[in-house]
Fold this protein.
Amino acid sequence: MSRPAHAKKNEVVKEIVDRLKNQQGMVIAEYKKISVAQITEMRKVALERNIFIKVYKDSLFSRAAEELKIEGLNPYLTGQNVYIFSNEESIAPAKLVDEFSKKFPELKLKAGIYEGQVLDTVGVNELASLPSKEELYSMFASSLIYPLRQFMLLTKEIAKTRAE
């Protein structure tokens, strides 16, 4: 007969497995010495960006990772960790932690999963420095508009010189 505590833990492991299967990007951050107000502020911003934040027991997260055959994550599963997932944009969790670690230096980025690969702190920081989809779209639109703007200025100057 299964004990209720084991059933609850199995449910949590199943939840983690589902999150890991459906995520586009995921990071692990240590939140030791972060106040409840600071975590709440980060959760509020994350919610606006469709990013999910949850604290899981490291042992349960490790069981879920083993179930999915994700290797190389266990060294990062120590301490007080918060797990941050995005189902939409792969670099969004890394950008969120990068942004908030500047405000709250106690928040430490530890590792992440990007395209099925476990990344260390350096790899996730590099990922966070990449432009988001919206930033890329903006850069692309600006590059398309620039030649048109130059052409308009040129025709305006030509019209001015002819008018004189």
About this structure: DSSP finds six helices and five strands in the chain.
